[in-house]
Specification:
- Helix 7 (237-247) packs across helix 9 (288-301).
- The relative contact order is 0.14.
- The strands form four sheets. A seven-stranded parallel sheet has the order 3-2-1-4-5-6-11, with helices on both faces. A three-stranded mixed sheet has the order 12-9-14. Strands 7-10 form a two-stranded parallel ribbon.
- The chain is globular and about 55 Å long.
- It is α/β, with parallel strands linked by helices.
- The model has no long low-confidence stretch (mean pLDDT 95).
- It has two domains: 2-167 and 203-229, Rossmann fold (3-Layer(aba) Sandwich); 169-201 and 233-270 and 285-301, UDP-galactose 4-epimerase, domain 1 (Alpha-Beta Complex).
- The protein has helices spanning 11-22, 55-61, 84-104, 136-155, 176-186, 206-219, 237-247, 275-278, 288-301, and strands at 2-6, 26-31, 46-49, 67-70, 108-114, 158-164, 166-168, 190-192, 200-201, 203-205, 224-229, 235-236, 253-255, 269-270.
- It has nine helices and 14 strands.
- 38% of the residues lie in helices and 19% in strands.
């Protein structure tokens, strides 16, 4: 196949591009490098540099493509005070990708959505649950899903929408594990934690995330295919901090706040019912504790 990956120089995108190349696909990375990094790309990768808002350039880059993996997004939730950057990148950007597909005659798109669309749930949440996002990121990812579903109906296209758990591991540049590592490299004796440490979420190793996406695009054949990708298990932030410290050979004092929420829009309880993608043959192979340990080791490799 000929595949274009938007955001292909980012965390998930660069790992996906590597796997696609290993599978002998013809891969084009499209990225503006606002978040992505050149060092994440293999020397022989085909690169088209530009904004996803540049519809003409994007359409030219995806000529003759069989499939677009749309991963480019504004995903940093902490400190987000305005919806405008999320609307610009995650809604208007997705609309631009769909317009470019129409211009280039591409009929298949795989979209990295997020468990953030659900808001908070105390039980494993299924794809049929009502979505009540509590962050601009989650709200605009949900809007992106809706745009893609409408596009498929109107243009006889096909889509795979992946509501991903917190994906962690190799080349990660933000998120709780990465932040803990950075904090402990600066101060080995004390680790400040946002919130009270009881927040519970599900985490997914990057390699398993890619396994799931590739399997679904191969096996699921509805017009719009929606999947949770994660685990019905969860792990709390305090335990994550202890695992990260252990992997670094440290025993810091853990300092907590007097509130459960780490920041406005923080999901304090979210984990996923994955029965739908399990039925295709995909299952997470690691416990949550194993996932965190493996992610720390991959991040520390800093390839």
């Amino acid at each position: 196949m000929k595949v274009l990956v938007t955001g292909g120089a980012g965390f998930i995108g660069s790992n996906l591009a590597d796997r696609l190349l290993e599978l002998k696909h013809n891969v084009i990375v499209y990225d503006d490098f606002s978040i992505g990094r050149h060092e994440f790309l293999r020397d022989n990768i085909r690169l088209a540099e530009g904004s996803i808002l540049d519809t003409e350039k994007l359409a030219n880059a995806m000529q003759d493509c069989d499939l677009v993996f749309h991963l480019a997004a504004l995903s940093v939730v902490y400190g987000a005070a305005s919806p405008q950057p999320f609307i610009q990148q995650n809604i208007l950007g997705t609309a631009s990708v769909l317009s470019a597909m129409e211009k280039a005659g591409v009929r298949k798109i795989a979209f990295a959505s997020s468990q953030a669309v659900y808001g908070e749930h105390e039980e494993p949440v299924s794809e049929s649950a009502v979505s009540k996002p509590i962050s601009y990121y989650g709200a605009t990812k949900l809007a992106g899903e809706a745009l893609i579903a409408a596009h498929c109906k109107l243009n006889n296209a096909k889509a795979w929408l992946f509501r991903l758990a917190n994906t962690v591991g190799r080349r990660q540049t933000h998120g709780v594990i990465f932040d803990f590592i950075k904090k402990l490299e600066k101060d080995k004796n004390k680790l400040q934690i946002l919130g009270d440490g009881t927040q519970r979420k599900s985490y997914l190793l990057i390699d398993e995330c890619i396994d799931a996406m590739l399997l679904a695009t191969e096996k699921a054949n509805e017009s719009v295919n929606l999947f949770n990708v994660g685990t019905p298990e969860a792990i709390d932030v305090k335990t994550i901090a202890e695992i990260v410290a252990s992997e670094l050979g440290l025993q810091p004092e853990l300092a907590f706040e007097d509130k459960k929420e780490g920041w406005p829009g923080d999901q304090t309880e979210i984990f996923l019912n994955t029965g739908k993608i399990n039925s295709l043959g995909w299952h997470s192979r690691h416990s949550q504790a194993e996932t965190i340990r493996l992610a720390v080791r991959q991040i520390l490799e800093r390839d």
